Amino acid sequence: MLAVFIDLSLEDQAVELRTFFKSLGAEISQEKSPKGIEDDLHKIIGVCDACFKEGNEADIEGVLNAIVSMLVLIPVERAENLILAFSEKLTKAPGHKLGLITLRVLWLLFQSLDKRSPMRYQVYYHLVQIASKVDQVRAVFKDVDTLKQQLVLCQPSNEQMQKLLRLLHEVLLASKQSELAAKVMVELLGTYTTENASQAREDAQRCIIAALADPGTFLLDPLLALKPVRFLEGSLVHDLLNVFVSEKLSNYVSFYQDHKEYVQSLGLNHEQNLKKMRLLTFMQLAEGSTEMSFDTIQRELQLQADQVEPFIIDVLKTKLVRARLDQSNRKVHISSTMHRTFGRAQWQQLRDILFSWKQNLANVQEGMKSVVAVQKELAAK
After folding, report:
1. CB 67 within 8 A of CB 45
2. Which residues contact 276 (CB under 8 A, 6 or more apart)?
3. I need a labelling partner for 125 at 20 to 30 A (CA). Which of 57, 132, 166, 246 fits?
4. Quick one: 319 exposed, middle or buried, by C-beta within 10 A (0-12, 13-18, 19+)?
5. What is the mean pLDDT of residues 292-320?
6. Alpha-carbon Rg of the chain, whole angstroms?
7. Class of residue 15 by CB neighbours under 10 A (exposed 0-12, middle 13-18, buried 19+)
8. How far is CA 99 from CA 108, 127, 139, in A?
9. What percentage of residues in the chain have a pLDDT greater than 90?
10. Residue 105: C-alpha distances to residues 99, 108, 110, 244 (Å)
């Protein structure tokens, strides 16, 4: 359909589209509006969802692309309401196939708009909504840095970016992109300043709950440094976060016994919490040990005797801890573990390791120089 309209004037394209939608039974006249092309497009966009009933997917996409080709030729200050109305219409397309079509059409509109146009933000927001419906969020969102590059010139307000980041967080969680969702939430919390961080309590709580619930998130102490999270100090959700950051399984069990209904109200699963806390506790115990007995693991992690080996095997699968299972001696020999928290002490330890590595390299280099010198002497003789 776009190929049919492409060589026509905007007014003639409007007449063709009016005629097409009229043939589908839409309530629209075939005559062009005396008020101009914007009014024509307003009427056309109002009934453009009539083509959703068409069986030919190529025709649907062609008609919608024809509307896009007209929208981008109208000065943006006169097309803002039209673009917004068109975007909203596309988000309501029913079904997976139509969703994929409207996703492509709206992506074409996004790419066609001037990068400085404020409407790029609006179109992108609706793109994310459609992508969520058809489980294609990664088709429109790669990472936070790319998102910033895409929207930097259209200069969305801080409130607009917060709204978009909230939507992305929800969509990414729903599509099981938990790692990306966590990065988006950290970015969202970073948009609050000291002056307005107290307004972010809901976002901060949502961030904490998502991190605790995510089975793949184990390094939680960076959340404590975020300004909005600091404003939650003294609240139960902040206390629970501290348990996961630095306490042991027994502390979580005590917290749950005292606040069972509260934990459940957050939507957190107690069994999943126990599983995560056992792993975090094991990591903490492993940090200062080269070996650990089965009895210690059983006691500290509140396991039955026959649960110890399966637990250790599950831990090794995560690759958070490198260890060797010694079944005959009922021990675990630990070679390394990911730090549960990474603060000043861990940075100092890393610095010492790198300094030692640098010194060892210097020693090797000096040794090689000596060998080369000796070889040159022998060659000269």
Report:
1. yes
2. 212, 215, 218, 244
3. 57
4. exposed
5. 92
6. 30
7. middle
8. 14, 10, 13
9. 57
10. 10, 5, 9, 45
pLDDT recorded at residue 3: 41
**What is the spatial distance between Cα 83 and Cα 48, in angstroms, rounded to a whole number?**
13
- The count of other CB atoms within 10 Å of the CB of residue 225 is 8
**Cα separation of 222 and 211, whole Å?**
11
Q: Tell me, what DSSP letter sits at residue 32?
A: P
Task: Work out the mean pLDDT of the chain and round it to a whole number.
Answer: 88
Dist CA 125 CA 207 (whole Å): 21
Token pair, residue 324, equals 């060797």
Whole-number Cα distances in Å, 49 to 105, 293, 303: 13, 67, 59
Judge contact between 79 and 38, C-beta under 8 A. Answer: yes
Please report the pLDDT score of residue 92 as a whole number: 94
More confident residue, 165 or 34: 165
Dihedral (Cα; 257, 173, 148, 113), 10-degree rounding:
-150
Cα–Cα distance measured from residue 102 to residue 95, given in angstroms and rounded to the nearest whole number: 11
Structure tokens at 341: 């928290």
What is the reported pLDDT for 343?
Answer: 53
Instruction: Check residue 341 and give its pLDDT.
Output: 62
For 336, the 3-state DSSP assignment is strand
Beta bridge partners of 324: 333
Pairing of strands 321-326, 291-293: unpaired
Q: 321 φ, ψ to 5°? A: -130, 135
pLDDT digits (tens, 9 = 90+) for 10-26: 888 888 899 999 988 88
